[in-house]
Amino acid sequence: MSADSETKGGVLGRGPVFWGALFVVTMFGGAALSSFALEGPAGLIVRILPMALLIPLVKAAERRGRATGCVNPVIMRYNRRVLFSSFGYVLGLGIAISIWNAYEVDRVTAFALALLPTLPTFYMIWAMGRYLVEETDEYLRYRTVRAAIMSLGMVLTIGIFWGFLETFEVVPHVWAWWVLPVWAVGLGLAQLWMKVRGE
Amino acid sequence: MNNRLKVLRAERSWSQQDLADRLGVSRQSVNAIETGRYDPSLPLAFTIAEVFDLPIEAIFLKDGATQ
Description:
heterodimer; A: 8 helices; globular; B: 4 helices; 2 strands
């Protein structure tokens, strides 16, 4: 298959933008449905199913990357590791919440339940660190480190400010695990910022 | 830091991707170095010099230096 046809073909003829948009829509739809209409295993399934869309999303992104020469094996390995950990996270979180809602658990079991969604996120953090170790292109590594530091600055700024707002009862309590999604959003925003500035 | 990467590349009729392949880096890296958005490390600068078969100072110039 030629590079051109690979770029146009994508997965099932669709590109990464299509699969990304479909993933976001179904994730929010599934979350809303399981929060308001579905409970128990059905709710868990509705939450997990959209994760399957990450497979064609990553495959389409890699296919496009190969066709345009913008992807390397290190990035592909990183994508697959993050995909694997995302599956583990959603599955672990779903199981933990289902057990928590259905049974009265003791302190030790609660500790084990907390580990279910936590361990996959540890793997995700390891994958990010591993990417920096494995990336041989110093410019791409520099960009990622820069975006990560900008994002860290954002997390610290928001965290400190929110913490004091919480102390003085201006805002509600936010669980500490939010640092990872906020950092991930910050990473994306930082990369977008660098792209817009032509860096 | 200024550099003569674009001129040297054009003299050899190499695309950015050609040079990137020779250096073992991404095309984005070559573009960023060429446009002055990124100064390469010393090891990469030496590799660039090797690829063009020129001394480093014939490729990279201090800000304000004439090419």
